[in-house]
TrEMBL record:
It comes from the Archaea. It comes from Natronolimnohabitans innermongolicus JCM 12255. The keyword tRNA-binding does not apply. This is DUF7575 domain-containing protein. InterPro entries: DUF7575. Keywords: Membrane, Transmembrane, Transmembrane helix. Residues 102-128 form the DUF7575 domain. The chain crosses the membrane at residues 6-24, 31-48, 68-87.
């Protein structure tokens, strides 16, 4: 399931950088990569001329006439977004909290759990209830006094 999620997030990020991070609930990263993508398009592509084009084929001709550096910049942003979404979906880098007050964490994805739920609301892994030794016989035998 994790690989399928990683491939899906990477595919969405190739289609639109930041979309794969939305699936992973990485809101700030989605905003960062989406903004970076649109800023790159706005800076390097002739948006006004493309908007004024009469047909889609004219628009594609204008986009194809953009220099190689601009195209490589857009490809670089898209590639980095896809790789980041893939690694995030696979759990790299592992998120560790050094807080001693942190609650229980998911054994599958490592994120903090809601104690009221029987599953992880981040990765939907079903959690087994903790079986404590509450019912164990803890009474000690009293010594016999004579």
């Amino acid at each position: 399931m994790t690989w399928l999620r990683a491939i899906f997030a990477a595919g969405l990020s190739v289609f639109l950088p930041g979309a794969g991070h939305l699936v992973l609930r990485e809101w700030l990263r989605a905003l960062l990569f989406g903004s970076l993508y649109f800023a790159t398009v706005w800076l390097f592509f002739p948006i006004e001329e493309m908007a004024a084009a009469g047909s889609t084929s004219e628009m594609m001709d204008l986009a194809a006439d953009v220099d190689m550096l601009s195209q490589l910049t857009l490809i670089f942003v898209t590639l980095i977004a896809a790789l980041d979404a893939t690694f995030r979906a696979l759990g790299y880098p592992p998120e560790s909290t050094d807080d001693g007050d942190a609650g229980p964490s998911c054994p599958h994805c490592g994120k903090e759990l809601d104690e009221d739920l029987e599953f992880c609301h981040w990765c939907t892994t079903r959690l087994e209830p903790e079986t404590g030794d509450e019912n164990a016989d803890t009474t000690e035998e009293e010594p016999v006094r004579s």
